[in-house]
Protein: GRF-type domain-containing protein
Amino acid sequence: MSTASTPSNRSSVGRDRRRVVGVPKLCWCGQSIVELISKSTPNPYRRYYQCSLAIQEKLSNDQHTCKWVDEAYLDEIESLCARTLSLQEQFE
Structure:
């Protein structure tokens, strides 16, 4: 796992940023996603996913995927809960 810093106000959904639900597998541009660790003061050691192209080109405030790991996991859990409820309803 790599380490890098990220702006403290980075969010999974920016004004122009595309919404990524769950754990991102690829960026919309087709590049791989890398898991990093924030070194910012407001979010020390908080893990996040970011597009490898954005990292390589040192892009900031761009439209490439960037999402906190904890938010991605919560999305995945919510999705699994919804699927579980749907399956339960089918069997009842």
Observations:
- The chain has a mean pLDDT of 83.
- DSSP finds two helices and three strands in the chain.
- The two ends are 44 Å apart (CA to CA).
- The longest strand covers residues 33-37.
